[in-house]
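Q: Can someone sanity-check these two? First one:
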Amino acid sequence: MLTFDVQIFTVRNLGRGRKPYQLRWRVGPEVHSRTYATTTLADGRRSELKTAMRTGEQFDTVSGLPASEMRQLGQLNWYQHARAYAEMKWPQSSAKSRMARADALATITPALTIDNKGAPSPVVLRRALSCWAFNFSERRQEPSAEILAALAWIEKKAVGMPLLEDADTVRSALNALALRMDGKPAAATTTRRKRMVFNNALRYALEKKRLTGNPLQFIDWSPPEIDDEIDWRHVPNPTQAAQLIAASASLGVRGLHLTAFFGCMYYAAMRPAEVTDLREADCTLPEQGWGELVLAGSSPRVSSIWTDDGKSYEERGLKRRARKTTRPIPIPPELVRLLRQHIDKFGVGPEGRVFRASQGGHLLSKEYSAVWKKARTKALSAKQAKTQFAEVPYSLRHAGVSLWLASGVDPVEAARRAGHSVAVLYRFYAKVLDGKSDQANEKIEQALKEARQSTESPQR
């Protein structure tokens, strides 16, 4: 039990033994004592305890020690604590979260070392940390001698947890997570994500009483600002999107196999992981008119060492939604036609999945990205193809949402169909929404004009 009720007595000479000088102090109801060989040693220890009292530290009634000294007894170092934190989070985390957390901790940990004497190469150390130290999969391969040596080095050199209360130590970790391995600045979103992992690990240290406070609260360091707004110079308009989708159909069987896939990303603004999880049972595809897709999950691609079942993808619920949550999306006749044609020609997979790899199995991002690259070359001018215009398939999702907003769809409904919050919609699609401000002003002005006319008209 910790308490502020502390009383320190004067040093007394017992006049016997090799350590005749006794220091006594009371913590709560308990009296503690230590003996020393010289009065200088006893007075020095008394001064340390008095200093702890003056700085407002609590003392432990059982051991009699100040709280700061209690933390240092049997204290883990940062590497050991980070491993304990990652292992604690592992069972309840998605595969993507496990991988992202390991990457963040592997970036931070090399910066939290006593020195770099005998350090392994940065590449080897990063691989050892991300793929072994912070990965708790049973399917990991046995580490090589090089990896084992790197892990032994970092465990020996990692700073003790009390040093995390030093501002310069914490700042070195923050500076590390803001850089890529080649020394160039990391993307703003990456920096913020890794800082969040660092903050959560420090909060876990508070929970386990390995720190007295979160040092990030007192460090003058800010992550780079994120420009969330989309650069609309790179987003295709409806005609361009249709041309890009049609171009994939002209690239042989492999491209034709993905035409409806790209159509889902544009006409339904679906994420790639949601499209790969689409089942035939989720689709209402009438012969004429609008249809509907009821999204129930996603299958993001991830290395098998991060999943529980060893698959190269993870079956999970919709992004940031409870596992059983569904999201119905009305789809226009263009997408209904593409999906009907796709199912008629290619059928569905064993689990009812609409989309598979051209050779069977789960559709991988590298396959649809390769087809998209060829479709851009075919549909765009040589000059346009060299730019970032529609550079990745995800551009179709941005184009789909912007089409809804430009067509006058209510932002709340557009956000619901896209599967994110209204706040995210306004943050990412601000320019599209700003473009409608004149229309909104005209409607307000018309309403005010009608009100004025009603007020000014003579009473009958």
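And here is the second, same format, sequence then tokens:
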Amino acid sequence: MTDEKQSAPSSAEAPIEQQLYAIRQTIQTRAVHGVFANWRIALVLLSQALYYGLPWLKWDDRQAVLFDLATRKFYIFGLVFWPQDFIYLTGILILSALALFLFTAVAGRLWCGYACPQTVYTEIFMWVESWLEGDHVARKKLDKSPWNIAKLKKRGLKHAVWFAIALWTGFTFVGYFTPIQSLAAETLSASLGPWETFWILFYGFATWGNAGFMREQVCKYMCPYARFQSVMFDSDTLTVTYDSSRGEPRGARGKKVDYKAEGLGDCVDCGVCVQVCPTGIDIRNGLQYECIGCAACIDGCDQIMDKMGYPRGLIRYTTENVVKGQYPDSGILRHILRPRTLIYSVLMGVIGSVFLYSLATRVPLRVDVVRDRVALSKETNEGLIENVYRLQLINKDNQPHRYTISAHGIEGLQLITSVRDIAAGPLQTIDIPVSLVADPVVLKSRSIEVSFTIQSTDDPRIKDDVTTKFFNR
């Protein structure tokens, strides 16, 4: 009888398990100072001053920037937009996309490194962390230490400050959609509505989680920009680059050692470029999708080069063609103007010009025509044909205006309305019932196109023509 027992697989044949994602190691970045660090600080402060400050600004006795969803009006300083002005939002989104493409083609992930909300709030949270828990060495020791009263107090205080910042961020976000002064009064009196409460907490928890816990994981795994950025790069794109021809072979040495005589490059293999990186990569391994272009490694490396007495720029913003020796660093500016960037610039210029012209010549009046749903037409006692309509007039201006209505398109067409002189207040919507009456003798077809003209009597530039159909019996 054959033995059906099979021997266990050897270690070489054993199945290999591989995790989809690497286990996250907490990154405690080293503090760095320099030109690019100063730029990041300046942009963080500027962006947050705008974000937190804009909702509190007043303009014509109202909030300067308010997207009032309840009344479907969107205030941006002196301009008021309505849902019908959706085309302007489309223009802004197109211009923003083109600007992102242009900046990426010129200098890589500038948005990610200096202005992305994930970067900005992570930077703010790291400032708090450094202030309360110490430098990167002290924070690493705290991570490894067992839980005790001291650690609990430090971590508890840090998270309390983080969550306070996150809640204030969520409160400000909701303040762009609900008048922020009313929102503040409701918050203080504990009378917030359910939706305001939900969105404040939702946005607060999102900020707390993304900037406090996930940090670089958002950039690595959640942000789609990290995945498609490479298609917008070319050999003339400025990226954070380690100059391997100058730095290799790397190795430790004393400051007074003649390293060139020993066959070493400028890189002293100190690891500072890795220690200051918010995503934990080693830029010396080449450009990686995790690099957000913050240039912290440039500042860190320059500090070491200064201490060693070596020239700066071992890690710097440069292009692939410079590294390959196609042209020197002095030729970078000249190569910024190339077909890709010129196309983006021209498109931005054309679309931006059309956008601004349309905005400058925008007529603050909109008229919609709604036909009577009971009957398309009816015959009057005099044998004439009557069509009934309702005009919805929207004064989109911050000033009151007076309007007159006229109709044309059919010979002898009569306009019948109870309101001849229309007075509309600022941002007011008015419904006006009107009738058009025509002699059936002049009606040559079943339906004829007619137009209503609404003209402002106090400003000749404000005028709207709207067409509709006049139906014969």
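A (reply): Looked at the second one. The radius of gyration is 33 Å. The longest helix spans residues 149-175.
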